[in-house]
Amino acid sequence: MSVGKEDPATxxxxxxxxxxxxxxxxxWVSSIRTKIVLPYAVLTLAxxxxxTFVVTQLVAGSLKECFNxxxxxxxxxxxxxxxxxxxxHLERCEPWxxxxxxxxx
Length: 105
Known about the structure:
Low-confidence stretches: none
């Protein structure tokens, strides 16, 4: 065998941080406690995710409805103020009754 070259037929034991994490994970998953608890933990997370989604959609829907109602009310207030201002303008034009009659045609 030459120096500096590895023999491909000789298996090299993996080492390093990643290998240790994989070993710990395999040991942890192979325990009976994990096999019992893991499905319930996944189910709990799934139910929590669905519940969060539903509540978020309901809150967003009610906020949207509230915003739309405020927008409609602001439109009504603006429209009323424009009508009120126009009536004031028409009352100022009272000396010219023919102009007022012509505007209502």
